[in-house]
Amino acid sequence: MRKILLTILLLALVGVVAKAEAPKVTWDKYSLMIDGRRVVPVMGEVHYSRIPADEWQREVRKMKEGGVTIIATYVFWNHVEEEEGIFRWDGQRDLRRFLSVCRDEQMPVVLRVGPFCHGEVRNGGIPDWVFSKGCKVRSQDAVFLSLVERLYRQIFTQVQGLQWKDGGRVIAAQFDNEYRGSGDYLMALKNIAYGIGFDLPFYTRTGWPELAKPVPFGEMLPLYGDYADGFWDKETKECVGNYYKAFQFKNFRSSTAIGTDLLGKQEEKINKGDEQYPYFTCELGGGMATAYHRRPYIYPEDTYSMALVKLGSGSNLLGYYMYHGGTNPEGRLHTLNEVQASPATANNDMPVCTYDFQAPLGEFGQTNESYYRLRPLHLFMQDYGELLAPMEASFPSPQNVQKGDDSALRWAYRSKDGKGFVFINNYERLQNLSAKKNVELEVCGVKLPKLTVPAGCMAVFPIGIDGIRYATCQLVARRNGMIYMMQIKGIPSTICMQNGKTLKNVKPKGANTPVYKNICLLTQEEAESLFLDSVAKHDVVGKVTFTKVKETGAPRTVKKGRAKVAEAPGEQDWEQAAVYKIALDDAVSQDARHLLNIEYQGDCARLYADGRLVADNFQYGRPFHYGLWRLPAGVKELELHILPMQSDMPVYLPREADKTPGESVKSITVTIE
After folding, report:
1. Rounded to whole angstroms, how far apart are CA atoms 360 and 377?
2. Is the pLDDT of residue 8 over 70?
3. What CA–CA distance (Å, rounded) separates 532 from 526?
4. Are 491 and 437 contacting, i.e. CB atoms less than 8 angstroms apart?
5. Which residues of 448-469 are buried (b: 16+ CB within 10 A; e: fewer)?
6. Model confidence over 70-128: pLDDT tens digits?
7. CA dihedral 421, 385, 178, 51 (to 10 degrees)
């Protein structure tokens, strides 16, 4: 009996200690602070219900290796209560299991709990049955709020014991999304959550568009965003909208380009007083989804440039949407993708399955080029965030220049007490900015040597940091007494020390050979893989045999739907698709990490296993992927259905897309992911 009592006492003490040791999270107008230490986090969006549960731990770890320090995830209402009163927290909908994985991996989580999320989900996540209740959604309608309270109570059953104060990793919650009405509605949501038991270090809302009535100061931190392009634009031309502003240093925190299909034209305004909050983002485009009518192709340079510009403009939390792509779960009543014919958010036809988003980590966890491109910046934010966070941003170059303006170098700097960082961005998506010659920059009384800034160059230079008076190479990390810097392609590396020593035209020697005392200079490629045990090679292991078994039928007429954009093919249209049989040998079908890569010509394609749709693709100039480890056991053959490209479709296709009318399969290969 004494032994049992002692065990109970020890467990109780452990619980008290765990709770007592939960780091204190606070914020001020500059940044978040953990136990009083300023941090500049990297937040990466991943939707747990769009990834099989047995892959969660692996993918969270890859996010950590990419430099992500906070995860954001939506809880889509119709993913968990598609049928009224039937809540599903099973399989990949098991929020508690996902939060437990994040706890085990020491990864903080911001829960975006809706009730409206968007996320390119049917009705923005609100179940169809809610619209039959005669209530006004996203309002203080008593019926609607009663349904929200029931939802929040269910979510809390998954969260209880895993909040930050309990030693768990749930650090914050966001209420609704892209809401423009009265802040009283957002406060009603917060009050419901708080009354149920949510007790978190801070709460958030999207800082766009401007609210009709603000929430009281301090109740919710506004988080902002920017994208390089948007599938939601109704125009089918290249470089439409205000996305070009994402590549300019500016003191305006928000974007006027996000969600124009729902929000319409937006002015450059935020709620009065919001500038007293820290400048955080939650939707910095890690890529972009493809709607049927508009299919942007996002380059790694787009994502990196936007991140660097936001950091140089004063942001102290970079939140990527998305950082990890996913696959929509199957619905019992409907497909769960956004479509024009649904009751709400009916402005775009999205793929049934894929939500790859061209993210740094793709739909199947594949590491894309942007994953590595962003890592040096993320390492810098981790190791130099405490120094960077209180630095004010200054904007010596013109702000709000026109699209493609090439008249001056775009640069900004952040500084405090004689120390600073210079941010350079000579890049804009799909615009050919020229090299800038004889550039002379002065920050904190320090003049940098005259530079030629190459076309497409993006860089961060230190001033008065770690004994360095200035450098024309980029700080990456500071670990175990060593300082790691990255050479900027096209710019000679000069390192001028505070002691008067100047090293000119320094050549990279790698992570193990200092170029001066404790300073190592790396190439960009070396910096991108710094501290990684291995880098994914995506080696091709073989070609796959395929046979055409059915020709295309009569071409469909591409019509515009309710939202006045092109409609995706319906099930009857798919009956006219060309059909190919894909043979999978035993080695391919049984390997745990084999990725199928389909290069095809055509409009769109679907992949079936035993008659079940498992993947789909709107062609936009990149391969159609599928993770073969997700196949049901015993599947030896797949069917690929392709609808042909047609001339003069009201669809935007990027430069890289094959616009040739017709359809064909160019190649099918398998790589090891």
Report:
1. 14
2. no
3. 10
4. no
5. beebebbebbbbbbbbbbbebb
6. 999 999 999 999 999 999 999 999 999 999 999 999 999 999 999 999 999 999 999 99
7. 120
State the SS3 of 309-358: HHHHCCCCEEEEECCECEECCCCCCCCCECCCCCCCCCCCCCCCCEECCC
Residues constituting the chain: 673
pLDDT tens-digit readout, 12-42: 333 433 445 799 999 999 999 999 999 999 9
Give the pair of three-digit tokens for residue 254: 């928000």
Three-state DSSP at 223 gives strand
Q: What is the dihedral of CA 295, 225, 109, 23, to 10 degrees?
A: 160
Give the model confidence (pLDDT) of 596-629 as tens digits: 999 999 999 999 999 999 999 999 999 999 999 9
Distance (Å, rounded) from C-alpha 148 to C-alpha 155?
10
Contact indicator for 650, 558 with CB cutoff of 8 Å: yes
Query: Which contacts (CB < 8 Å, 24+ apart) does range 264-271 have?
Result: 266/208, 266/209, 266/210, 267/210, 269/210, 270/207, 270/208, 270/210, 270/222, 271/207, 271/210, 271/211, 271/214, 271/222
C-alpha to C-alpha distance for 19 and 162, rounded to whole angstroms: 11
Pairing status of strand 578-583 against strand 546-550: antiparallel
Q: Is the dihedral of CA 141, 146, 150, 152 positive or negative?
A: positive
Strand partners, 413: 394, 422
The answer to whether 57 touches 50, Cβ cutoff 8 Å, is: no
